[in-house]
Amino acid sequence: MSNCQPTFQRIGMLGGTFDPVHLGHLRSAVELHEALGLKRLHMIPAPQPPLRGEPRVAPETRLALLQAGIGDTPGLVADDRELHRAGPSYSADTLAELREQYGDQARLMMVVGHDAFLKLAQWHAPRRLFELAHVVVIDRPGYNDPLPGELRELLGEREVDSVSELMRHAKGGLLRLSLPSRMAISATGIRHRLAAGQSVRYLVPEAVERLIIQKALYRNE
Ligand code: ATP
């Protein structure tokens, strides 16, 4: 008898404001693609992120920057689905769409950086996230605060300690990953640099830098 387990599609989602996308996002995306053996990682800009102020540039422009940043990188997709939905951009709704698209057996994983993870219990319908997907948390330099009590309560016994263990089920688990290239790059830092007339070379892909300059984005705070 063969002990081969059936393999199911592994699909990731990395949502964000991407105001603008930077190499912290993109290098993490490539390393996630490899570490999790993903068929596809959907990078999805939120037109109206519920837990923060209005983004600096329009959703269509942030999408264009993301497309330019991804270029032809295998396995990464600039996904515009939230731009077609009215109202606040809830990840639970996006995961429900992806679940519908890929079916019950797909290993669907929502990826968040540690900073975003610390606020997960305040998201819309946090329990529903785990009914639809696994949550994968990636390290981010400068963010290692302990988990708040309500988050620990939400997580319960969900945490596993390996990719293979996570893949035993289609959803409901939590995995914390430390990717090889952790980068202390933030969109806030990039916006500040641009407003101050400073260089963002090697913090964003050159195609993104070109577009920012061409469209004169983020010139002032
Ligand atoms: P801002 O500075 O405007 O808050 P940001 O750099 O945190 O932006 P977002 O678009 O808000 O970027 O992030 C989208 C997702 O990517 C979040 O889950 C965030 O934690 C994660 N992320 C952002 N930057 C990094 C990074 N340098 N390393 C790892 N994860 C990151």
TrEMBL record:
Its EC number is 2.7.7.18. Keywords: ATP-binding, NAD, Nucleotide-binding, Nucleotidyltransferase, Pyridine nucleotide biosynthesis, Transferase. InterPro entries: Cyt_trans-like, NadD/NMNAT, Rossmann-like_a/b/a_fold. Residues 13-193 form the Cytidyltransferase-like domain. Pfam families: CTP_transf_like (PF01467). It comes from Vreelandella rituensis. HAMAP family: NaMN_adenylyltr. GO terms for biological process: NAD+ biosynthetic process. One of its GO terms (molecular function) is nicotinate-nucleotide adenylyltransferase activity. Belongs to the NadD family. It comes from the Bacteria. Pathway: Cofactor biosynthesis; NAD(+) biosynthesis; deamido-NAD(+) from nicotinate D-ribonucleotide: step 1/1. Catalyzes the reversible adenylation of nicotinate mononucleotide (NaMN) to nicotinic acid adenine dinucleotide (NaAD). It catalyses: nicotinate beta-D-ribonucleotide + ATP + H(+) = deamido-NAD(+) + diphosphate. This is Probable nicotinate-nucleotide adenylyltransferase. NCBIfam families: cyt_tran_rel, nicotinate (nicotinamide) nucleotide adenylyltransferase, PRK00071.1-1. It is an enzyme of class 2 (transferase).
